[in-house]
């Protein structure tokens, strides 16, 4: 009898340790879709290293005109952005005055600055680069849409990735950093 009681107690103790994870996983605030974890606008809490790897949080979530970005590898915030109707990945850079585009991606957006328009110089991590200043018809992230946004197109190898700079961020009603999350509201 004592042996059975101890066995039952051990089973209950083990189950109690896994119950919070089980409840959180299947409570409706998070569900699994194709091997990727998808959050319904809630942030999943990871209480251990095992939980962090078991449930990957979404990198970008949208609730109407509010976007939340999670800090990614290297401490950067990356966003899926639609420019003139085409989807691109951009890294948020509060140190960039303008949205900064590679010449290749600018062409994919339908932006073709003339060679004479590359009359400005800017200093980048890779040195001085020639840029053209353009106006993008529309920049959209989730439910946030901003029209007529100034951007720079970088010629040559001065820019490796597109940057979502202050010419977009300053047009929002609010943006703030809290912990590992960047929230943008329009």
Report what the structure shows:
The chain is α+β, with helices and mostly antiparallel strands and about 190 residues long. The chain has two domains: about 1-55, no CATH class; about 65-185, Cathepsin D, subunit A, domain 1 (Beta Barrel). The chain is built from four helices and 13 strands. The chain has helices at about 1-25, 50-55, 105-110, 165-170, and strands spanning about 30-35, 35-40, 60-65, 65-70, 80-85, 85-90, 100, 120-125, 125-140, 145-155, 165, 175-180, 180-185. The strands form three sheets. Strands 5, 6, 7, 8, 9, 10 and 11 form a seven-stranded mixed beta sheet that branches. Strands 3-4-13-12 form a four-stranded antiparallel beta sheet, with no helix packed on it. Strands 1-2 form a two-stranded antiparallel ribbon. The chain starts with a helix and ends with a strand.
Order of helices and strands: HEEHEEEEEHEEEEHEE
Residue share in β-strands: 35-45%
Proportion in helices: 10-25%
| Unreliable parts | 5-57
Class of the largest domain in CATH?
Mainly Beta
CATH topology of the largest domain: Cathepsin D, subunit A, domain 1
Number of H- or I-type helical stretches = 4
Tell the overall outline.
Answer: globular
Question: Could you say how many structural domains there are in total?
Answer: 2
Write down the overall mean pLDDT: 74
Structural class: alpha+beta
Comma- or semicolon-separated keywords:
seven-stranded mixed sheet; single chain; alpha+beta; 186 residues; four-stranded antiparallel sheet; globular
């Amino acid at each position: 009898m004592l042996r059975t009681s101890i066995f039952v107690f051990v089973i209950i103790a083990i189950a109690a340790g896994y119950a919070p994870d089980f409840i959180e996983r299947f409570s409706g605030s998070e569900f699994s879709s194709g091997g990727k974890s998808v959050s319904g606008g809630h942030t999943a809490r990871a209480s251990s290293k095992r939980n962090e790897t078991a449930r990957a949080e979404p990198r970008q979530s949208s609730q109407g005109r509010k976007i939340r970005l999670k800090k990614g590898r290297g401490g950067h915030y990356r966003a899926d952005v639609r420019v003139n109707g085409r989807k691109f990945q951009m890294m948020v850079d509060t140190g960039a005055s303008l949205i900064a585009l590679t010449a290749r991606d600018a062409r994919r957006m339908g932006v073709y600055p003339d060679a004479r328009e590359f009359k400005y110089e800017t200093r980048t991590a890779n040195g001085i680069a020639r840029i053209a200043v353009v106006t993008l018809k529309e920049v959209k992230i989730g439910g946030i849409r901003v029209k007529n946004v100034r951007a720079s197109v970088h010629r040559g190898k001065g820019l490796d990735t597109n940057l979502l700079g202050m010419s977009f961020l300053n047009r929002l009603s609010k943006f703030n950093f809290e912990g590992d999350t960047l929230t943008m509201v329009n």
